[in-house]
């Protein structure tokens, strides 16, 4: 599910169904949108690419709706060519953008 404005409680609940309160999300840090609720980050990534997002702007992680905790762990984050040779988002700048967008759209 692609979220472009503050998600409703129903949308959040729907996205969190698959993992019982946890949402796998992919954020486009330039467009300020996200996609979430799928089985794999790659599913959410594909949805955003179809919307016109650029690969280098997409970062994956997760959101626990019970604790409001974010994580930055996803295979799609492995980018040796972009100085991110990790499943975690290593750049503080990219993490900050990720956090701000998730806070705006899901919290």
Task: Map the helices and strands.
Blueprint: E1 2-3, H1 9-16, E2 22-28, E3 33-36, H2 41-50, E4 58-64, E5 69-71, H3 92-106
Antiparallel strand pairs: 1-3, 2-3, 2-4, 4-5
Q: Which residues sit in consecutive blocks of at least 5 with pLDDT less than 50? A: none
Question: Helix fraction?
Answer: 25-40%
What's the overall geometry? globular
N-to-C SSE series?
A: EHEEHEEH
The number of domains is 1
Count, helices:
3
Q: Which structural class fits the helix and strand makeup? A: alpha+beta
Would you count the extended β strands for me?
5
Terminal residue distance:
16 Å
Mean pLDDT: 96
Order of adjacent strands in the largest pleated sheet: 1-3-2-4-5
Rg measurement, Å: 12 Å
Sheet-strand content, in percent, reads 15-25%
What summary fits the major beta sheet? 5 strands, antiparallel
Task: Give an overview of the whole structure.
This protein is an alpha+beta fold and 107 residues long. It has one domain (2-106). It contains three helices and five strands, in the order E-H-E-E-H-E-E-H. It has helices at 9-16, 41-50, 92-106, and strands at 2-3, 22-28, 33-36, 58-64, 69-71. The longest helix has 15 residues, at 92-106. It is globular, with a radius of gyration of 12 Å.
């Amino acid at each position: 599910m692609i979220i472009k404005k503050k998600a409703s409680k129903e949308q959040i609940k729907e996205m969190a169904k698959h993992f019982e309160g946890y949402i796998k999300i992919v954020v486009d840090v330039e467009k300020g949108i996200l996609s979430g609720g799928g089985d794999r980050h790659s599913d959410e990534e594909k949805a955003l690419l179809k919307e016109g997002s650029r690969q280098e702007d997409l970062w994956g992680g997760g959101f626990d709706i019970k604790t409001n905790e974010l994580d930055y762990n996803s295979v799609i984050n492995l980018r040796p060519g972009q100085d991110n040779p990790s499943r975690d988002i290593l750049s503080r700048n990219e993490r900050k953008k990720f956090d701000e967008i998730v806070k705006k759209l899901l919290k």
